[in-house]
Design goal:
There is one protein chain. 31% of the residues lie in helices and 28% in strands. It contains ten helices and 17 strands. It folds into two domains: 26-267, DD-peptidase/beta-lactamase superfamily (Beta-lactamase, 3-Layer(aba) Sandwich), CATH 3.40.710; 280-379, D-Ala-D-Ala carboxypeptidase, C-terminal domain (Peptidoglycan synthesis regulatory factor (PBP3), Domain 2). A hairpin with a 3-residue loop joins strand 7 (218-226) and strand 8 (230-239). It is of the alpha+beta class and 380 residues long. Strands 14-16-17-12-11-15 form a six-stranded mixed beta sheet, with helices on one face. Strands 2-1-9-8-7 form a five-stranded antiparallel beta sheet, with helices on both faces. It is globular. The protein has helices at residues 2-23, 61-71, 102-110, 115-126, 129-143, 167-177, 181-187, 211-214, 254-267, 366-379; strands at 33-38, 44-48, 78-79, 99-100, 191-197, 200-206, 218-226, 230-239, 242-249, 269-273, 280-286, 292-297, 301-305, 312-318, 321-323, 331-339, 342-351.
Length: 380
């Protein structure tokens, strides 16, 4: 009986090991360049020729949309530039004399991949397409995109070899863009109702990103295609509190590849407790029945690539003292968690007890003198 139990247990253990190994096998990817990163930490989970410079087609519009959203005045109406909308390729349907807003143009860029929307936004934001492209390249430098160069706001590259990026750079760009709430919301819509025209009227725009309905948890981001770049896709996916970003350039099977890459990547993620020496703190209590007051914070857990929690550092920001009476559960500080110098999480610090006001009547000037002495003690 014991032998049978042992054999059964061994079989279960071996099957688990086989499953684990299969889950961690690198996926077969047909892309010329590809990468998968953890959005929280920037950690690379998978890459294939991720640093090779390649044309990126309309995924260019990630940068164009971000700069447009950051410009502000998103809902101010204006008339489209008649020359800007005269552009080949995919379109949101702008016509001469149409009245639009920048927000509508961003929707036109990110969903139907309108080249007319990208050019029109460029002229509105920077005064000309050329000036906007300069802004794009300047922002690329700020982001550390060392292998990226933009020539057009739309991604059209038929007449140039100078419009290029890498899978890695596009992942870094997307990680930054997803921090913008408007960008994150718009790029995740399968369709969206907007108003434009002369006069403006309601109409629907449909997203070219089929992965939004094909792959569990996908929240965006942008498709792309030109004859030179071939199929390009940038996507982001959320599962169990983790967000991963995938980029493929020149990939004939991008829908399938992104699904496989995400399944592989999420198998590497696990919820891990972030390091903290203690979950209780003491600060000064001025004018109270106690000289100190106990404070607390909740344990922080985050979905991270396995084994990476040890690379997380933390900083504690907390007030030096409180005046009494002091109540329980008052917010007095925070713990910030960093991965490679970048903030990835934070937790509030609260008072863990209440402290009443001292019943003793202080001598003239005694209360404030006590406050001063308390502050001195904290810094001694």
């Amino acid at each position: 009986m014991r032998l049978v139990s042992f054999i059964c247990a061994l079989a279960i253990a071996l099957s688990s090991l086989v499953f684990k190994a299969e889950a961690y096998e690198f996926p077969e990817v047909s892309a010329k360049g590809a990468i998968l990163i953890d959005a929280a930490t920037g950690e690379i989970l998978y890459e294939k020729n991720a640093y090779e410079q390649l044309p990126m087609a309309s995924t260019t519009k990630i940068m164009s949309a971000l700069l447009t959203l950051e410009h502000g005045n998103l809902d101010e109406q204006f008339v489209v530039d008649k020359e800007a909308i005269q552009v080949e390729g995919s379109s949101m349907g702008l016509q001469e004399g149409d009245i639009v807003t920048l927000r509508t143009l961003v929707c036109g860029m990110l969903l139907p991949s309108g080249n007319d929307a990208a050019n029109c936004a460029a002229v509105r934001v920077a005064g000309s397409v050329e000036a906007f492209v300069q802004l794009m390249n300047e922002r690329a430098v700020e982001m550390g995109l060392t292998s990226t160069h933009f020539v057009t706001p739309s991604g059209l590259d038929d007449y140039t070899d100078e419009h290029y990026s890498t899978a890695y750079d596009m992942a870094v760009l997307t990680r930054e863009a997803l921090k913008n709430e408007d960008f994150r919301e718009i790029c995740g819509k399968t369709n969206i109702k907007v108003e434009f025209g002369n006069p403006p009227y309601e109409r629907w725009l449909t997203n070219t990103n089929k992965l939004l309905t094909m792959c569990d948890g996908v929240i965006g981001v942008k498709t792309g295609f030109t004859d030179k770049a071939r199929r390009c896709l940038v996507s982001a996916c959320e599962r169990d509190g983790a967000t991963l970003i995938c980029v493929t350039l020149n990939d004939p099977d991008d829908w399938i590849d992104h699904t496989r890459i995400f399944d592989y990547g999420f198998a590497l993620m696990s919820k891990q407790e972030l390091p903290l020496d203690t979950d209780t703190f003491e600060i000064g209590a001025v004018g109270g029945t106690s000289d100190t007051i106990l404070c607390k914070t909740d344990t922080a857990k985050l979905m991270l690539p396995e084994g990476k929690a040890e690379n997380v550092t933390c900083e504690i920001f907390i007030v030096p003292f409180v005046y009494c009476p002091a109540a329980e559960n008052v917010h007095v500080g925070r713990v910030e968690y960093y991965y490679n110098g970048q903030l990835i999480a934070q937790k509030p610090i609260y008072t863990a007890q209440s402290v009443g006001k001292s019943a003793a009547e202080p001598e003239s000037g005694g209360f404030w003198q006590g406050c001063i002495e308390k502050v001195k003690d904290l810094f001694d």
